[in-house]
């Protein structure tokens, strides 16, 4: 089906300010449908869950709908959807829970490609348990070779943490092959899908992700994080929790009161993604069609962006992975990354500069201590005109 970016953009009031929002990898803008879902929740009145009155019942329904929506988005079961304030907080919580069973001599594998939120929680948890950390390295193109994992894993490996897509290079490693090696060694897998989820269809089971993390604000929702796993796996884990709080899965992993209005926004954001094309069917079927169309749109713009950047004297693009999301990480000769970002801001183009929490990756690239690079990222509401505006600003 055809992809009508103008129709998509019409649903985003923030895009009316005249700026080119090429900063989606740091957080996306929010459509009116999400804004209204949140506002309507507050207008109607809500109570905490589990009460005997209608406002409480509404909260129960909101939570249930949000779990189903995220399950539809990534391919999972609603009872396996754990909500939290963000991916980082949830990953620290999962790391502490899983590491409670680790012993000295156990091993954890992390990668230089990952956002630090899928590195540091595991490194720190391993240190407390006396476990050994092993590192999967990137190659010169910014790829994460699968072959190295055979030599990294053993029967003492307890967990492999890997990203589904780099948030600065866009690299999409062969996660399914990596997780297959991990499972053959008897290890669990924790896949960071924060950057990957907005840029194409997601199937958690096909990826082999025992745990799959995502953040709604990267796909046009509010600031809510989620980790999705099989309910049966979650039921084997015992996180620290209040004695008085619910013990069944997934509630035992959710500390405190959930943000009910924001969860209504999560459902609306998933519905927004499902409605990007006119495809019919279940929400899961519509999501698969929409995200395929969005990915094709983004990749077309990304080719335009990459070709343009490579044609500008003095511009260096970091990495050249074969399969990547629509994000370019680059420097301009004679300018610091911050100066380039400020130049583009003056041209009404929003981009990010710095390490963007890709701490190990920017270190491996040898650019972290010099300000790293500039990141321009494309999401499904961006246009060719916005890409051209960035290229023109860099060329003048």
UniProtKB/TrEMBL annotation:
UniProt domain Aminotransferase class V: residue ranges: 21-390
Keyword Secreted (UniProt): no
Key word Nucleus present: no
SUPFAM superfamilies linked to this entry: PLP-dependent transferases (SSF53383)
GO biological process, one term: antibiotic biosynthetic process
Pfam families with a match to the protein in the record: Aminotran_5
Keyword list, A-Z: Antibiotic biosynthesis
NCBIfam families: am_tr_V_VC1184
Name listed for the protein in its UniProt record: QmnF
């Amino acid at each position: 089906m055809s992809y009508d970016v103008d129709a998509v953009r019409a649903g985003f009031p923030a895009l009316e300010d005249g700026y080119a929002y090429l900063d989606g990898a740091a957080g996306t803008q929010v459509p009116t449908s999400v804004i209204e879902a949140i506002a309507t929740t507050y207008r109607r009145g809500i109570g905490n869950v589990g009460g005997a009155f209608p406002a409480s019942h509404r909260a129960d329904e909101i939570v249930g709908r949000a779990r189903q929506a995220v399950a539809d988005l990534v391919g999972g079961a609603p009872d396996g959807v754990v909500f939290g304030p963000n991916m980082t907080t949830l990953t620290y919580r999962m790391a502490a829970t899983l590491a409670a069973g680790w012993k000295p001599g156990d091993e954890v594998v992390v990668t230089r490609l990952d956002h630090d939120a899928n590195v540091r929680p595991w490194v720190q948890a391993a240190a407390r348990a006396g476990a050994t950390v092993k590192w999967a390295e990137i190659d010169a193109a910014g790829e994460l070779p699968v072959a190295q994992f055979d030599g990294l894993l053993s029967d003492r490996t307890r967990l492999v943490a890997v990203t589904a897509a780099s948030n600065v290079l866009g690299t999409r490693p062969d996660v399914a092959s990596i997780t297959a090696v991990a499972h053959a060694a008897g290890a669990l897998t924790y896949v960071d899908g924060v950057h990957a989820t907005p840029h194409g269809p997601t199937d958690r089971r096909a990826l082999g992700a025992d745990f799959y993390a995502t953040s709604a604000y990267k796909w046009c929702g509010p600031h809510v994080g989620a980790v999705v796993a099989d309910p049966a796996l979650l039921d084997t884990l015992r996180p620290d929790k209040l004695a008085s709080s619910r013990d069944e899965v997934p509630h035992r992993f959710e500390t405190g009161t959930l943000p009910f209005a924001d969860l209504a926004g999560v459902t609306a954001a998933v519905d927004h993604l499902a409605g990007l094309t006119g495809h019919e069917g279940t929400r899961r079927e519509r999501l698969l069609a929409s995200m395929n169309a969005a990915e094709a749109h983004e990749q077309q713009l990304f080719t335009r962006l990459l070709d343009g950047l490579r044609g500008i004297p003095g511009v260096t693009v970091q990495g050249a992975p074969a399969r990547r999301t629509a994000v370019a990480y680059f420097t301009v000769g004679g300018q610091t990354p911050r100066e380039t970002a400020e130049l583009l801001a003056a041209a009404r183009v929003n981009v990010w500069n710095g390490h963007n929490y890709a701490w190990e990756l920017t270190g491996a690239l040898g650019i972290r201590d010099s300000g790293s690079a500039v990141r321009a990222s494309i999401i499904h509401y961006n246009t060719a005109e916005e890409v051209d505006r960035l290229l023109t600003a860099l060329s003048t």
